[in-house]
Amino acid sequence: MSNQFNDNAGDLQERSRRSLYRRAIDGTRGGSNNFTNLSLYAFGLSGVWTGIGAGILPFKVLEALELGDVSVVGYSLDKNGALGVLSLLGLIVAAAAQLGSGALSDRDPRIGRRLPFLLIGSIGLASITIVFGFTASFVSLLLAIVAMQMFGNSAQGPANALIIDHVPATERGEAAGVLNLWRLIGAGSITVIVLQFMARYDSQDAPEWLWYSIALMVTMLVAGVLWTVITVRPKTGMFIPTLKRPEREHVSSADTRAPEQAKPRISRNYLAFLVALAFAIAAMSSMQIYALFFLQDVVGLENPADGADLLVIVIVVTAGITVLPAGYLADKYGKTNLFIIAGLAGVVSSLLLLLVDSIGPVLGIGAIIGLSVGLFMTLTWAVANDLVSRSSAARDLGYTSVATLAGATAARLAGIGIDELNSVSPNLGYKAILISVAISFALSAFILARLVKNPDQVSASSSPASAPANSASD
At what angle do helices 359-387 and 268-289 cross, to 10 degrees? Predict the structure, then answer.
């Protein structure tokens, strides 16, 4: 594999003439050279998170509230606040798990070092997802969500570095597009089915629909992860990850830097990126978390799960159409103008939602949301891969979980504000959150466009990750 990068660079112009979607599943690129093999794990992982978060957790929260009041530090929570706090506490565990498991996988120089974490963490997530189905009280929901986040993100942290380990810098935009395509397909298709199942669910009269949903999510999770593990695994097979610190021998003998310089701190550019990512996550999370209740309270749908189902389809299809061209255009022409388009689409769509009172306009606006989401997903992951070092890729990419935590914290705590403002005036809380979403999209796009305007600023930090392929590979 030592000539992998040179061969790929020589083939780039020829492959650019072929269909982007055909290249996403290109069977001529076997094993770790195939972008789909590197990405299919995300199909199941994203399906579980969105299926639980958007399709099942709101129902579980309502059931928990029926059993008794939920209060935090003496403050009684309504449905939006309880949903937000429950998700937030899980995300704190998620950030710690990604950073910890990612750093551990960086310590191991052996081929295939990411895969045991991915396999074991995903099996744990699948097991706890089944346990989640039995929860009823707020405390049991909290414990299940925390355990799911711990196992799932112990898998996600090391998996974050698969693109850096296997893909040259000239193709990381396209690889990020393929990764996010499978994330969207998993999140969209599984969530649509789960929402359809949960629309028929009743805890007393029809509890089986919950278990159909859980069986679907667990099956897709295990299938996607096994595909990536089997197709990317080294010829020598799997192994137990080492917890020892890496020996200096695996660093190039030409590297005369001091030990602390060999494992670089994150740069100011990367810190700016993380701030921008937090704003983007806050905006996108707010739209996802409160969509069901927005459709119920503002649009007036009697069965908001059906409306949310249609909205998910529109957003996912539009985003799915967007992610691969976004990655290709980012590699070929740069990312600045694409970030501007993403920000404008996010601002316009969130402000237009202030004017809706029926499902038709919501679905039309959903297409604009999908464009923004698709662009942000691919472009931010491509920039992240450019900004981190190969020697500490999983650890550094794990900091994106901290940015996700910051953005998601803002989004979930906003649920308390939504409930409070709605009590002052009908739907005032939803109007406030939509204006906040527009501001967050604008700030994120502005920071990211400025960051990538000078390509040297980004590529300078990524030079360690452009080392020959035989320096580190799964």
Answer: 160
